[in-house]
Amino acid sequence: MTTRVLLSALAGLALSGHAAAVTLYANDFDGGVVVDGGVGVAGFTNGGLDSATVGAWNANGWSGSVFRNASTGNPALLSELTLSNLAPHSAVEIDFLLGLLESWDSSDGGCCAPDWLDIYIDGSLVASLTTNNALGTVEDYDGGTELYEGVQINGGSYFYSDALIDMSTAGFLSFAHSGSTLTLGLQARGAGWQGGGDESWGIDSLQISYDGQRSEVPLPGTLPLLGIGLAGLGLARRRP
User: Fold this and answer.
1) Which of 152, 120, 127 is nearest to 53 (CA)?
2) DSSP character for 180?
3) What is the DSSP letter of 220?
4) Beta-strand relationship, 79-84 and 40-42
5) In what order do the strands lie in the sheet with 40-42?
6) Residues 57 and 163 sit within 8 Å (Cβ to Cβ)
7) 10 Å Cβ neighbour count for 178?
8) Which residues pair with 210 in a beta bridge?
9) Is 145 in contact with 46 (CB distance < 8 Å)?
10) CA 193 to chain centroid
11) 171 three-state secondary structure
12) Along the 240 residues of the chain, how does pLDDT read in single tens digits?
């Protein structure tokens, strides 16, 4: 084995652990917040806690308290989470449960449409979602998976039913990223958006993962291998 190949193999062993997912931020809105060491947190803004109703969806993670934004206006108030001082990294994955609550009228609901929820990453629009709890025909979750519809999943209005979406299957929420700051934003908009007790959205079981690592020191399990490899290189050089 040549010196270059051996060094490459050893480097691969030493760095292989860096790709493992690290929890950057997690929040179940019941007091269970996890933040990677050294990371600063600001937000969520413009919303508050609501209660999930008891039902089968509790097993999916929509349970206890949830974060809810019921603001009015077009656009409504932006809810934003900003994480700063991230460790060096190359990729981020965001997972959460999304509740589209009360009388959403889709993008084609006539008098009361459209109703959209825009999702932003670092200030850039990456997706616009809608559903038809009341009027219209379009359900657009941009890769998210609908878990429940026609159910009452939160403590808000009980006149209209809600929809619960698993956003872990949305491809746009797994992306290359290397900045030291990450911002996630959600904002309702549309000429038909009413907010208040008539239309709102909520999230629960939020988890943001990345491949960050604060040190390039080899993982403990790779140190003996690295030492053996370097010793082997020394012996190889002594041979005639």
Assistant:
1) 152
2) S
3) G
4) antiparallel
5) 40-42, 79-84, 182-189, 116-121, 124-129
6) no
7) 12
8) 22, 92
9) no
10) 24
11) helix
12) 433 333 333 333 333 344 569 999 999 999 989 999 999 999 999 999 999 999 999 999 999 999 999 999 999 999 999 999 999 999 999 999 999 999 999 999 999 999 999 999 999 999 999 999 999 999 999 999 999 999 999 986 667 899 999 999 999 999 999 999 999 999 999 999 999 989 999 999 999 999 999 875 554 554 444 444 444 444 344 444
117: buried, middle or exposed (CB in 10 Å: 19+, 13-18, 0-12)? buried
Distance, CA of 162 to CA of 98 (rounded, Å): 10
Place of tokens 């988890």: 207
Q: How far apart are CA 116 and CA 106, in angstroms?
A: 7
Provide the residue type at 199 as one letter.
E
Could you tell me the two tokens for 177? 């990223």
CB 183 within 8 A of CB 208: no
Determine the Cα–Cα distance for residues 175 and 94; give it in Å rounded to an integer. Answer: 9
CATH of domain 20-214: 2.60.120
Provide the 10 A C-beta neighbour count for residue 240. Answer: 2
User: Could you tell me the two tokens for 120?
Assistant: 């932003």
- Alpha carbons 118 and 75: distance in angstroms, whole number: 10
Q: Where are the domains of the chain?
A: 20-214
Alpha-helical runs (H) found in the chain: 3-15, 223-238
Question: Phi-psi category of 109—alpha, beta or left, where left has phi over 0 and alpha has psi -120 to 50?
Answer: alpha
